[in-house]
Amino acid sequence: MTGPWMTLAITLAVQAMVSMALLTLPVMAPVVASALGVSAALVGVYVALVYAGAMAASLAAGAAVARFGAIRVSQAGLVLCAAGLALCAVPHAAASALGAVLIGLGYGPITPSSSHLLSKSTPAHRMSLVFSVKQTGVPLGGMLAGALVPSLMLLLGWQGALLAAAAANLVCAVIAQPLRAELDADRRTDKPMALGNLAQPIRLVLGHPALKMLAACSFVFSIAQLSLTTYLVTYLNEGLAYGLVAAGLALSLAQLGGVVGRILWGWVADRGMGARRMLALLAAVMALGSAATALLSPAQPQWLVLVVLVVFGASAIGWNGVYLAEVARQAPPGLAGVATGGTLAFTFFGVVLGPPVFGALSALFETYRAGYLALAVPTGLCCVALLRARPSAQATDGGR
């Protein structure tokens, strides 16, 4: 019998693999851009295409999980990511664009699938911690991409590195197969996969006040997260005169803060604070962290700059697990995957929209400080909204 820890282990592994797939090409962006004869700045378009595909796929995930099972849908996601990576190895910009969409279609269903599995196997009083541990697969995948892909590129070339990452995703899909019969036993083969099912997750979220508020907050939180990780190195390099190596180290430490934060916040939420109050606290820290980041100056000691960025990263990157656990709690029975898919559509929309708006705002004021300072407003409003929201009668004590 597959226990909760094995379920957590396989969902964590799948999450790490698809996250690595998403970041494999961006890690090699200057080299790939040179080979294709395009600007490395187009990596922003690549990431936007990935998340646009993910947003669409997340809406279909609930119905797909119900019909085919969460493990089968996860395997399909891994295969789509592998296909997308292989397509990106074709030396043409159009192939990379199509590959980005395929990777997004593979990435989008992974979190709804894992939420479906974990909501069944995890006791309510441990959900925040377990979901947070699973969500460490996102920065873990980023760390794997950063640590392995450059070395693979030197050894195999940029195309070989893409194919190696594709192979890793396929291996993970094969490893998951022995768990399929047991974990997908609740699938309903008569469940229709109609186009109208794409609207069900959105209708569920908009018809449920608690889910609607959580989705709105995730839209803002994802903007803060991607704005931090996308622009921090450039901000430190241009605004604070940090070298690229030092700026890259600062970003790594901010991401490490996110890894630690995802686990710590889940543990604290389950130990009595509750997910909603924990999210309100994280929103407040995001607001303060973004404002403090905007006020950094070259005259400040490096240790102080790093402390600010680690705290900012711990909140802006570390919120996901507590949030997903609360979505699963608030969802109607048996609809955790559908609710997660619906809320993730709003989350991914923030990822697609946020960084370009941040960049445009920073360009308008000719400083990235303006973008980080502006983030303090919506994150602060999320804190107020979460504190004022009344706990749903459907939520367990762990969610209040």
From TrEMBL:
<keyword id="KW-0472">Membrane</keyword>
<feature type="transmembrane region" description="Helical">
    <location>
        <begin position="370"/>
        <end position="387"/>
    </location>
</feature>
<dbReference type="InterPro" id="IPR020846">
    <property type="entry name" value="MFS_dom"/>
</dbReference>
<feature type="transmembrane region" description="Helical">
    <location>
        <begin position="277"/>
        <end position="297"/>
    </location>
</feature>
<feature type="transmembrane region" description="Helical">
    <location>
        <begin position="78"/>
        <end position="107"/>
    </location>
</feature>
<feature type="transmembrane region" description="Helical">
    <location>
        <begin position="43"/>
        <end position="66"/>
    </location>
</feature>
<feature type="transmembrane region" description="Helical">
    <location>
        <begin position="213"/>
        <end position="234"/>
    </location>
</feature>
<feature type="transmembrane region" description="Helical">
    <location>
        <begin position="303"/>
        <end position="323"/>
    </location>
</feature>
<protein>
    <submittedName>
        <fullName>Sugar phosphate permease</fullName>
    </submittedName>
</protein>
<dbReference type="InterPro" id="IPR052952">
    <property type="entry name" value="MFS-Transporter"/>
</dbReference>
<dbReference type="InterPro" id="IPR011701">
    <property type="entry name" value="MFS"/>
</dbReference>
<keyword id="KW-0812">Transmembrane</keyword>
<dbReference type="Pfam" id="PF07690">
    <property type="entry name" value="MFS_1"/>
</dbReference>
<feature type="transmembrane region" description="Helical">
    <location>
        <begin position="335"/>
        <end position="358"/>
    </location>
</feature>
<feature type="domain" description="Major facilitator superfamily (MFS) profile">
    <location>
        <begin position="7"/>
        <end position="394"/>
    </location>
</feature>
<dbReference type="InterPro" id="IPR036259">
    <property type="entry name" value="MFS_trans_sf"/>
</dbReference>
<dbReference type="GO" id="GO:0022857">
    <property type="term" value="F:transmembrane transporter activity"/>
</dbReference>
<feature type="transmembrane region" description="Helical">
    <location>
        <begin position="240"/>
        <end position="265"/>
    </location>
</feature>
<keyword id="KW-1133">Transmembrane helix</keyword>
